[in-house]
């Protein structure tokens, strides 16, 4: 199958006529091709977006909202096909894509369809100066959205929906590893009545197609989710061009467990926060820190629960863990297991590749638990982004907090306790953008979303996203 670019409302071949192979991680085989787009394709997309902008930015909020709602409805109507598309590219269980990825993609559009009708700006009477100030929030123009492979449609739409709701026109690039659902979205947008040129989807590699988006002088803002190293490369190009940037980057999130927690709930959730989506979510709790009093019990119970997870064919509804996204990624993740001892770790469970019947070339790995004693080891400091968690114990609150904060990342933290004072102390002192207490991945789309330290710059979600995708202009009117 050949996926094409979606530019100016039409599916088109790349100008260079150059294509890249697309792999299915479930089988470890090539199943299609995508455009290897160049800066000429980006130029066409920018021109289409620029042409659409004067009309789209003046389209009423009610009309924009109606179209976004329609896109949300069509995503849900096409849930089966989209979930299969997500799984064939990413390797995730189809059941997970049906329950999480695709409904959330629809929710992103529905949320911003509503939010844009509630987004208002401030006004201030300048008392004593006979003047009134008000703020105009104007769309930026053409903006760029670049997304990763782990939650393909979920994160692609998380950027596109607020961008177009706010009146911008978009040039978007999904990950070259997972292009399918972005491709299907193009057709959905046409059917929903989105005017041509408002959304342009260009496929290709990060270092060429992605870079061409970031460096295009007419693209005013970049919203990016992906690796920290890539985020730094993007910032290096975008900052001297004075573009707005929102970077959602890596994480090495602590999952801090105290003896006074609701144990069963914690155990169940910790299995999920460790291995959901094969551990390939930037919010996964990859460092489990457990109070010494319950460490041995936790270790035994956690290993038992994890050993019950089924690694298998993503089409099978009983599968918990599907394939990793690519051969290259599998090898990267596996290298941490192969070197675990050298890094000071002890493998307590897992660590081996899994042979799935009829899919022997697929990229399957056991969920893996590694015990560590030193937070400074590579296993606890580097983002692995796969089905690997480390566990270690702590004695005091101070020690737990120090361990939690002692990494270069600062995306999210999970805290398990029923002590209110401790909850408040940790909430204030954890150096992360998100703190979940007695839960994980509970997402209210109104909340600010983003990371501290090397986990990113800026916040998306709710009105934060609409603020990012608009320019605030102060109007000061003097009167008699
Ligand atoms: N924070 C997160 O959510 C994610 C973190 N990662 C981390 O990053 C590591 C590398 O994974 P990759 O797939 O290589 O992620 P990546 O950061 O290279 O890719 C994310 C997106 O950025 C694009 N891109 C890559 N280089 C670019 C550039 N120079 N300019 C503009 N766009 C560019 C890619 O084509 C893709 O669409 C993973 O092993 C994982 O640790 C990966 C995906 C998501
Ligand atoms: O917005 C969310 O709910 C989740 C976001 C997850 C990422 O940004 C990620 O895993 O890259």
TrEMBL record:
UniProt keywords, alphabetically: NAD, Oxidoreductase
Keyword Hydrolase included in the entry's annotation: no
Annotated catalytic residues: 248
Keyword field contains Oxidoreductase: yes
SUPFAM superfamilies (alphabetical): ALDH-like
Short name of any one Pfam family annotated for the protein: Aldedh
GO molecular function list: oxidoreductase activity, acting on the aldehyde or oxo group of donors, NAD or NADP as acceptor
InterPro entries according to UniProt: Ald_DH/histidinol_DH (IPR016161), Ald_DH_C (IPR016163), Ald_DH_CS_CYS (IPR016160), Ald_DH_CS_GLU (IPR029510), Ald_DH_N (IPR016162), Aldehyde_DH_dom (IPR015590)
UniProt domain Aldehyde dehydrogenase: residue ranges: 16-475
PANTHER family linked to this entry: 2-AMINOMUCONIC SEMIALDEHYDE DEHYDROGENASE
Family: Belongs to the aldehyde dehydrogenase family.
UniProt-recorded name of the protein: Aldehyde dehydrogenase
